[in-house]
């Protein structure tokens, strides 16, 4: 058995437009939904979603982020120095169609991504491009109430057609919606609609939005295959693994129920049809999905080529009981066998191996881990070094788990660690929750030089890639 990773394994990192680019009104861009979200505690940040931007009284971290829009050449050169074979980025919909309903796209926005992809290709870095990463044009979200309204689909279709035709020779690996299953626990980000679990229309809005987005994703897959014959479309799942808290059969059933809430989206996009278990779930929760003529055929005929997923932590499920906590924006019960980060996220590399086996057993299509990492507060030493051994340890354990899963027989395309350069936290808007191999001198209120500094993990990951994982396996 080969102890090393394959030569064609796609090592690299991942960022998103709203968490890295900044320049939120530059070159014709208009605000997205994320641009209305302030920096602050979880619920305060989400409560600002879709509201008017008040620059006098709030700080909006996406507006400047880490200024990747103006510094991308410097950052791509650093990624190339580490030996990246792939980089996951997202296109900001509002750079291409600022309001979302324009007849013609914004040429300056299109040109930015042309330049970005050209810079990546210069260093032989393969672009992996997310079409929508939690940022919808604010104008469309205000007008239609987010993805619960089917009127969103034609605007998304036009956007997809535009970027596929423009970048067909530069981008071959695409992802439709970032962590599409996130709409079940944070509809604000996942479906651009202000619906919470406490909302009386939560189930109806969420699963009608889910259907609309699943149809839109199938349209994107169809367009991708037509316009880019050698292109591949992947779905992107927030990788959630939920153990039963005990061996009580009631807890086991609760675990199955909770895991299905996440698998549902992959079941449709990878298999091409609604799973049988949805019938009872919809009936018991009074959900009526607006399935129109041709929808089911579209889903059946346009399944995704691979399954991309994120993985950070795991939770447990109980049939009854109190004491649930939040980790990675998901509510569940603590696992006494696992340690937690400062933000309440468990470290569970074995869970990654289990999840990868589960996903591959279920779908038998290639997997691609496109988000994984440790958010932590890094300190710069007097000599300018940043010793993030805790991050190295976390990543090492998870890379080892990937290799174990691959040895189990799981076909795996690559590993793109999240926030390969420090960026804005999605959940809190903080900069102090850092993931990167590269430190960016910006604080939680946007103050700093924006200068970049290599951490200890920079050289470590460089050696991982150079040796095909040989330095840690």
TrEMBL record:
<protein>
    <submittedName>
        <fullName>6-phospho-beta-glucosidase</fullName>
        <ecNumber>3.2.1.86</ecNumber>
    </submittedName>
</protein>
<dbReference type="InterPro" id="IPR001360">
    <property type="entry name" value="Glyco_hydro_1"/>
</dbReference>
<dbReference type="GO" id="GO:0008706">
    <property type="term" value="F:6-phospho-beta-glucosidase activity"/>
</dbReference>
<keyword id="KW-0326">Glycosidase</keyword>
<dbReference type="InterPro" id="IPR018120">
    <property type="entry name" value="Glyco_hydro_1_AS"/>
</dbReference>
<dbReference type="InterPro" id="IPR017853">
    <property type="entry name" value="GH"/>
</dbReference>
<keyword id="KW-0378">Hydrolase</keyword>
<dbReference type="Pfam" id="PF00232">
    <property type="entry name" value="Glyco_hydro_1"/>
</dbReference>
<comment type="similarity">
    <text>Belongs to the glycosyl hydrolase 1 family.</text>
</comment>
<feature type="active site" description="Nucleophile">
    <location>
        <position position="371"/>
    </location>
</feature>
């Amino acid at each position: 058995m080969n102890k090393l990773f394959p030569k064609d394994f796609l090592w690299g990192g991942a960022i998103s437009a709203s968490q890295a680019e900044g320049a939120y009104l530059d070159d014709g861009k208009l605000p997205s939904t994320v641009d209305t979200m302030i920096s602050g505690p979880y619920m305060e940040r989400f409560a600002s979603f879709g509201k008017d931007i008040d620059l006098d009284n709030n700080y909006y971290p996406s507006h400047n982020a880490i200024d990747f829009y103006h510094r991308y050449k410097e950052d791509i050169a650093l990624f190339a120095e580490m030996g990246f074979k792939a980089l996951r980025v997202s296109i900001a919909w509002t750079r291409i169609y600022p309001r979302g309903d324009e007849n013609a796209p914004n040429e300056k926005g299109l040109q930015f991504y042309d330049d970005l992809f050209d810079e990546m290709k210069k260093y032989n870095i393969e672009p992996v491009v997310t079409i929508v990463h939690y940022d919808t044009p604010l104008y469309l979200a205000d007008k239609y109430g987010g993805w619960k309204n089917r009127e969103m689909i034609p605007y998304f279709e036009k956007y997809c057609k535009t970027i596929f035709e423009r970048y067909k020779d530069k981008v071959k690996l695409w992802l439709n919606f970032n962590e599409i299953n996130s709409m079940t626990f944070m509809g604000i980000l996942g479906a651009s609609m202000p619906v919470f679990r406490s909302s009386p229309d939560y189930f109806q809005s969420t699963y009608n939005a889910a259907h609309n987005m699943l149809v839109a994703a199938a349209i994107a897959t169809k367009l991708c295959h037509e316009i880019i014959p050698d292109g591949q479309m992947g779905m992107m799942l927030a990788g959630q693994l939920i153990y039963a808290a005990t061996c009580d059969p009631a807890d086991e059933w609760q675990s199955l129920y909770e895991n299905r809430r996440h698998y549902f989206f992959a079941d449709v996009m990878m298999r091409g049809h609604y799973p049988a278990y949805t019938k009872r779930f919809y009936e018991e929760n009074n959900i009526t999905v607006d399935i129109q003529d041709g929808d089911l055929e579209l889903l059946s005929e346009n399944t995704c080529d691979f399954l991309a997923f994120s993985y950070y932590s795991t939770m447990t499920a109980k049939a009854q009981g109190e004491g649930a906590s939040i980790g990675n924006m998901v509510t569940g019960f603590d696992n006494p066998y696992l340690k937690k980060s400062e933000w309440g996220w468990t470290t569970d590399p074995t869970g990654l191996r289990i999840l990868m086996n589960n996903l591959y057993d279920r779908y038998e299509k290639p997997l691609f881990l496109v988000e994984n990492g440790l958010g932590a507060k890094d300190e710069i030493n007097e000599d300018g070094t940043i010793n993030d051994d805790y991050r190295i340890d976390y990543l090492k354990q998870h890379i080892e788990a990937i290799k174990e899963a691959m040895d189990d027989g799981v076909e795996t395309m690559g590993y793109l660690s999240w926030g390969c350069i420090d960026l804005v936290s999605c959940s809190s808007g903080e900069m102090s929750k850092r993931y990167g191999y590269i430190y960016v001198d910006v604080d939680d209120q946007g103050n700093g030089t924006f200068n970049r500094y290599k951490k200890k993990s920079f050289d470590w990951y460089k050696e991982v890639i150079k040796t095909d994982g040989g330095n840690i396996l």
